[in-house]
Specification:
This protein has 384 residues and is of the alpha+beta class. It is 38% helix and 20% strand. The strands form 8 sheets. It has a 5-stranded mixed beta sheet with strand order 13-21-18-19-15. Strands 1-9-6-8 form a 4-stranded antiparallel beta sheet, covered by helices on one side. The chain has a 3-stranded antiparallel beta sheet with strand order 7-11-10, with no helix packed on it. The mean pLDDT is 90.
Length: 384
C-alpha cells in the first residue's frame, strides 16, 4: 500500500531559469507543513529523471535527516507546480483507493506519531535520522476512505483558519516599519534632514547589572522578581511582558531593575541591537541596556523603532569575537534624528493601536492552533 522512495542527487543547482530547469525539493522546502517554492533549488534533469522523480498529486515529502525537532515534518504535494524529488527528503506514496493522502499527512503530523519517530531517531551531533524501515513499521488506524476524507476535510478547514490567522499577524508586523519610514524616512542616513541629538540628550542610558560568579548559582534565583535575558528580548516582538527566570531577595540585591516603559536593548552576542519596550518592572543583567526616554523630548515608541533600523550599524561595529558586543560608549553619544515631538507622538498612538490589534490577532491564532491540535488529538489519539 505504501511506497517510500529516496530522491535523486543532482548537483546542477541554481541553473539559470528559462533553460528548461525544474525546481527540486530539499529540506528547506518544507515550511509550516507546506511546500515553499521560494526555497527550492533548480536543476536540469534528463527526460528519464523527470519521469522517475517528478512528484505526483498526493505525494508526501518527509523530513528524515535533520535536527531532532524537525524529524518527521511533512508536506503534502498538491500539484501546485512541477517538482522533482531531491535526495534530502523521503517521498511517501500511497494507494489512494485505500489511504487518502491528506489523511495520512495529517496522521504523520500528529503528536503521537511525531514522538514515535523521535524516539527511534539515530542521533549524531546536531542531527538525527530515520530510515525507511522505521517509517514502514509504523502501525496506523485506517478507517474507511469516506471517514478518512471527512477527517482530512475537517483538519484542512482548521488548518486554513490557523494559516489565515498567522498570515494576518505577519502582515500586521510589516505595517509599523513601513509607517515609520513613511513618517520619518530611514533614520540612519536621515534623508529628511531632521535635527540631530545624541541619545543621552533624550534619555537616560544605563546598563543592567548582575554581579554573581558563577552566574548560574541557584541561590540567587526562584523568587518573585522578573529577571530577563537577551533571549527574552529577541522573542517578544517588541513588547516584553513575559520572562523565563526570576530572582529572589538575594538576587535583586546584586542586580538592577528598570521600570515599565523602558526601552531595553541587547548588547552582546547574536542578539546585539534587538530591542523591546518593557511592560513591567524587570531586573536585567549587564548584557542588557535600559533606555529611559524623557517623554518631554521624545517618544519611547519612536526611539525603540529607530534603534531597530540602527541594528545593522551596531552589528557592523561590534568586534568580531565570540562575545561580540556594543557598549555605553557607543549608545550614549549615538547621534539620531529628532523629529518634532508631535510627529513622534502621532507614531506612538499608531503603535498602540497596532499593538492592540496584534494582541487580538495573537489570541485568535492561539485559539485556531488549539482547535487544530484538538481535532488532531480527537482523530488520531489511541482508542481505549
Amino acid at each position: 500500500m505504501t511506497e517510500i522512495r529516496n530522491g535523486i542527487d543532482l548537483d546542477q543547482y541554481d541553473c539559470p531559469k528559462g533553460t528548461a530547469t525544474w525546481p527540486i525539493s530539499r529540506i528547506e522546502t518544507i515550511s509550516q507543513g507546506e511546500i515553499d517554492f521560494d526555497r527550492v533549488k533548480y536543476v536540469a534533469p534528463t527526460a528519464l529523471q523527470i519521469e522517475r522523480y517528478q512528484l505526483r498529486y498526493g505525494d508526501i515529502l518527509f523530513s528524515h535527516i535533520n535536527s531532532p525537532e524537525h524529524i518527521g515534518k511533512t508536506a503534502l504535494f498538491a500539484g501546485q507546480k512541477p517538482l522533482i524529488h531531491g535526495i534530502n527528503l523521503l517521498l511517501v506514496r500511497v494507494d489512494p483507493n485505500r489511504c487518502v493522502p491528506a489523511y495520512l499527512n495529517a496522521l504523520l503530523n500528529s503528536k503521537g506519531v511525531r514522538l514515535h519517530f523521535r524516539a527511534r531517531c539515530k542521533k549524531a551531533v546536531n542531527q538525527a535520522s530515520l530510515n525507511r524501515e522505521d517509517i514502514l513499521s509504523l502501525e496506523i488506524r485506517l478507517p474507511s476512505t469516506a471517514d478518512q476524507q471527512r477527517i482530512a476535510a475537517q483538519l484542512e478547514q482548521a488548518d486554513r483558519l490557523r494559516r489565515a490567522r498567522r498570515y494576518a499577524l505577519e502582515l500586521t508586523d510589516t505595517f509599523l516599519p513601513a509607517a515609520f519610514l513613511q513618517l520619518f524616512g530611514d533614520p540612519v542616513p536621515n534623508p529628511r534632514s531632521w535635527p540631530v541629538s545624541e541619545l543621552e540628550e533624550l534619555a537616560t542610558v544605563e546598563r543592567g547589572k548582575f554581579t554573581p560568579r558563577p552566574r548560574n548559582d541557584p541561590s540567587y534565583y526562584g523568587g518573585n522578581f522578573p529577571f530577563i535575558q537577551t533571549g527574552d528580548i529577541s522573542k517578544c516582538g517588541g513588547r516584553l511582558g513575559s520572562w523565563t527566570q526570576t530572582l529572589n531577595e538575594k538576587g535583586v540585591s546584586v542586580s538592577r531593575s528598570f521600570p515599565p516603559g523602558t526601552v531595553v536593548i541587547a548588547i552582546v552576542g547574536a542578539t546585539i541591537g534587538i530591542t523591546a519596550i518593557l511592560e513591567a518592572e524587570v531586573y536585567c543583567p549587564d548584557s542588557v541596556v535600559g533606555i529611559q526616554v524623557d517623554s518631554a523630548k521624545a517618544s519611547k515608541e519612536y526611539i525603540e523603532f529607530l534603534l531597530r533600523f540602527w541594528r545593522p550599524v551596531f552589528l557592523a561595529q561590534a568586534p568580531e569575537t565570540a562575545r561580540a558586543n556594543i557598549n555605553l560608549d557607543i549608545l550614549r553619544p549615538l547621534r539620531i534624528p529628532a523629529p518634532p515631538l508631535p510627529l513622534q507622538q502621532q507614531f506612538a498612538a499608531l503603535v498602540e493601536r497596532v499593538e492592540r490589534l496584534r494582541s487580538i490577532q495573537r489570541e485568535s491564532l492561539r485559539q485556531s492552533e488549539h482547535l487544530f491540535q484538538s481535532l488532531l488529538h480527537q482523530a488520531f489519539s489511541p482508542r481505549a
